[in-house]
Description:
The protein has a single domain (3-149), classed as Ferritin, CATH 1.20.1260. Helix content is 71%, strand content 0%. It is built from five helices and no strands. The longest helix is centred in the C-terminal third of the chain and has 33 residues, at 116-148. It starts with a helix and ends in a 12-residue tail after the last helix. It holds the Pfam family DUF6099. InterPro entries: DUF6099.
Amino acid sequence: MNAMRLIEANRRALARSEEPVAIVMEVWQSQALAQAIGSRLAVTGPPELRGEALGLSEVGGRACGVLDAPRMGTEDIRAARLTETGEAQDVLLALDQLLGEVGMALVGVAMGAADEGVYWQCMEAIDAADESRDRVLEMLRRLAVRERGLPEPDSAADPA
Length: 160
């Protein structure tokens, strides 16, 4: 299944989730998808994205580890169905939107958490979602630089 369809499926499932346990499960699904997309872009994406894509994969994996893993089979993990990423810019824009929604959903769960452990779990997951978004935004910036045909700021020739 392509990344855009999986991102949209995650967005719909997250929007439908009302109970904290269901929200956390959808956040886990979203971070697993970020991890899978990052892995795929690191291997097959544009060369200028590969370092950040690998970082996205690592952060997504760490975020999944922070959250209580849902009990489900491989067939229930949406990210396991990823077969193609499609156009990197479109996928990254959609993933950015999903990760923003993930952060907002986690804030809601954290605010209503009666258990201190759940609260701190949400705080760590919010940090991971923010870091994932930072990686996505950096990849989008690099794509924009490439599209304009400009050199990367750190790779420009030294005038001295």
